[in-house]
Amino acid sequence: MPPARKRPRAYDVTRTRTAVLAQFAHVREAVRALTPEQLARPGPGEWTVRELAAHLAMALERVSRAMELPAPGGPRPEIALLEWPFSTALNAPGIAGSARDLAEARPGLDALYEETAARFGELVPDDAGDRLVTTRAGSMRLGDFLVTRTVELVVHTDDLHRATGLDIPYDRQALAACTRLLADALADKAPGGSVEVRVPPFAVVQCIGGPKHTRGTPPNVVETDPLTWIRLATGRTRWADALEAAQVSASGERADLAPLLPLMG
C-alpha cells in the first residue's frame, strides 16, 4: 500500500496577499533603478532582463484579470495547489512569448508596475480565498493562486538579482510561502517517510518510500537554505553542483534528491 499523503498545508489569504504586494514593491524598486544597458542584459533562458521584468508584472496581473472574469463553473477547482508546480512546464512557451510582447508594448516599466499594483489592490480582495478563478493551469481557489504568485515573484526576484547583481529584499512571508509550497510538492511527488528534508527556518518535510523514521536523529537527512532549495526545485541549480559547493548537506544512503529534481520546468 502506498504511503498516505498528508493534508495540504493551509495558508492565510490576507497574509499571502500582503506578501505578494510587498515582494512586488521590492521588485518595482529594483526595476526602477535599472539602466538601459542592464535591461538589455541576458536574463534567465532566452529572456532579456527587460522581458524578465515584464514577466514579473504579468505574474501579478494574471490575478487581476482572473478576478475580472466570471468564476468558473463547478463546485471544485480543476487543479490543486500541490499540482501547480508540475503544470508550469506545459505553459512555459506561451508565457515566454507573452512576456516578450509586453516588454515591447510597454517600454515604460515603472508605469506598468504602478498600473499593475493599482489594479491588483482594487480587484483582489483579501477575504475571498475560496473563490474559484481561471488560471493557465485550470481553475484554482484564489487563495491557492496567490500562493503560486509568491513562487513566481520570489523565483524571478532571484533571477533578476543574478542577472543584474542588484541586492533585492525578500519579503519574509513571500519567501516562506514559496519555500513551503515547493517542499510540500517534493513530498507529494515522492510520498514516504524515509528522508527528512529541512529548509530552515520555513519547512521540514518527509519524503521517499522506505523505512519510516519515528524518533531520534533521522538516518537520511537533507538540509539547505531557502534560496538554494528554490533554485534546486526550479532547475536553476543542479543537485550535484549544490553538493559540491556545500550549499546542501545530505546524509544517509537514501538522501539523494537528484532523481526528483527539478520540480518545476
Number of strands: 6
The portion of residues forming beta strands comes to 5-15%
Low-confidence stretches: none
Q: How is the largest sheet built, in terms of strand order?
A: 4-3-5-6
**Secondary-structure element series:** HHHHHEEHHEEEHHE
Quaternary structure of the protein: single chain
> Pairing-aware structural class of the strands and helices?
alpha+beta
Q: Helical proportion?
A: 40-55%
Number of helices: 9
Q: How would you describe what is shown here?
A:
The chain is of the alpha+beta class and 265 residues long. It has two domains: 13-173, dinb family like domain (Four Helix Bundle (Hemerythrin (Met), subunit A), Up-down Bundle); 190-260, 2-Layer Sandwich (Nonspecific Lipid-transfer Protein, Chain A), CATH 3.30.1050.40. It is 51% helix and 10% strand. It contains nine helices and six strands, in the order H-H-H-H-H-E-E-H-H-E-E-E-H-H-E. It has helices spanning 13-32, 36-39, 49-68, 84-105, 109-123, 142-164, 172-189, 226-233, 239-244; strands at 132-135, 138-141, 195-199, 203-207, 221-224, 248-251. A four-stranded mixed β-sheet has the order 4-3-5-6. A two-stranded antiparallel ribbon has the order 1-2. Strand 3 (195-199) and strand 4 form a beta hairpin. Helix 1 runs antiparallel to helix 3 and helix 3 (49-68) packs antiparallel against helix 6 (142-164). It is globular, with a radius of gyration of 19 Å.
